[in-house]
Amino acid sequence: MAFLHDMRFRAYFYQFAAIAFVIFAGWTMFSTASGNLAKQNIATGFDFLARPAGFVITEAAIAFEPTDTVGRAILVGVANTIKVSLLAAVFGTLLGLGVGIARMSRNPLLARLALLYVELLRNVPLLLYLFLWYSLIILILPPVKQALNLLPGVYLSNSGLVVPAAVVQSGGAALLACLLGGIIAAALIRRVSTKKRVATGQPNHGGLFALAALLAPVLLLWFSGSLAVDWDFPTAGKFRLTGGLHVRPEFVALLFGLALSVSANVAEIVRAGIEAVNKGQWEASSALGLSRGKTMRLVVLPQALRIIIPPLTNTYLTVFKNSSLAIAIGYPDLVMVSNTVMNQTGQAIETIAIFMGVYLALSIAISLVMNWYNAHVALRER
User: Fold this and answer.
1) Tens digits of per-residue pLDDT, 111-136?
2) Which of 4, 172, 274, 363 could be joined to 168 by an S-S link, Cβ 3.0–4.6 Å?
3) What global pTM score does this model have?
């Protein structure tokens, strides 16, 4: 029985026992629920995913018709959730970075305005702000009959913003391949140029070469005539706008609310990361003749990034979970679509299990990506 005193064996054994207990508990609850539902003649299982959906989704990130399956409808909800959450994370991070730096400004007015911005957004529930933005859009903008014609083919009303839409007639696969190849080439060029600049201390315009590598494949595809793009311009009817790309007020209100909420949290994370960098770094950079802007960009922020990344992960996880508030203003995210499916099929347990699993998978994916990046930028001992 000497193996019982092996720490590694005991560690694996306890993990195995914990996993086995969770599986047993989950199976027991599932079996009990299935038995109780069967006694009440309530259908169970996931066969309902293959049935026709029979309902309309007002905004879909991927193509959807009421004749498509319930599984396709749930996939549309997932795509809508990912779309608005990713955009909110990107815009919120960029805005939060600027606000966080403004919090450190020597200008007292700018610093206090940034502080007011952060406090207003962090101390009021996000749901109330979603109601506010949505109400402002509906009340301030004119109805569809009196839609504002901002530019040729661009209309704005309380039903949303309508702009011309680009429709790829041919060469779509080649366009995706060119974009992917350009991104990979730009990343490699940027990495090599950064290493060379660090080694020599001389600028080498790596950013311009990376941008050229990113755009060159698409431009070559366009000039070769292999890519055919048609434009769908909206037209104003008596009661509605037809054609074009319709950006609905529900999406705008949700994106606006989530992005501002993220920006306030990111601003405080950035401020804390900058303040954690030793003040001697500022003094040393100043002694070398670097301006305050270059010191922030080249010296302080790269060091603060190692402190910023871990709490930033939690912020990104929160924005994906907060997107479930979209149901309050009518945006068809995963939760809203799932609720419609539950009302039509009556299979609540399976539907709830699906969108819980989706949120769990998204959260794990975000954590893995951010943990990889955190390990990539972390200091390594020599």
Assistant:
1) 899 999 999 998 889 999 899 888 88
2) 172
3) 0.81
